[in-house]
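Thought: the user wants the 3D structure for the chain below. I'll pass the sequence to the structure tool as-is, report back what it returns, then summarize two notable features.
Action: structure_tool
Action Input:
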Amino acid sequence: MELDGRVALVTGAGRNIGLAIALDLAKAGAAVVVNARSNKAEADAAVTAIVDGGGKAVAALGDVADPEAVRRMVDAATSRFGRLDILVNNAAVRGEIPFAELDFAKWRAVLGVCLDGAFHCTKAAHAALKASGQGAIVNIGGVSAHTGASDRAHVLTAKLGLVGFTRALAHDLAGDAITANCVVPGQIDTARAGGRAPSHHATHKPLVGRRGRPDEIASTVRWLVGPQGRYVTGQTIHVNGGMYHGS
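Observation:
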């Protein structure tokens, strides 16, 4: 219960990695604001799972690409729980499309959620995280932004942008006692639209011989935002079973 008394906002927390993070932070004692863009059933199910486990949670629907919706999410945290200590920018839009077919609208749709969304959430949460005195931000990256991949120019650009954003935040917010780190999952067993794994999974394999589990990403996030992670900031941490070695 190392996060007892603290409050976390996790974006894109209705399923997969985001859900695992929300559940693990709740197990550590944090009250959790569970964000989903529009799927109320998923957000409510996550809240129910946390409450049934003895934790505290509230759902907050909204698109992270919309600054007003983001403001309402942060308000939900501070009005319901009185504070905000942890922000996990996990919401993302992924997909594969050849560059020749990638128009500006599709480009902006991905960057708007992955990169602009992280900016909006961090701006809205900054004052509360500063007031915490132990604020922590974790941005969730993507391994293909580091290995490279075909048909994912928009996704790779957004996810690698999060690395630069993380490093900038570490410098800008250190004086506010806020840490900022980027966790980069490798090949994780998650539910995907259409049920098909990205094509780059066929060319990069984990050394450990299996895909990772969402809870293995969640445990890394939990450590980073907890008391043992206070001396870690500005880092890009790869959790990928050895499929990629780098920074």
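Final Answer: Structure generated. Residues 7-239 form a domain with the Rossmann fold fold (CATH 3.40.50.720). The longest strand covers residues 178-185.
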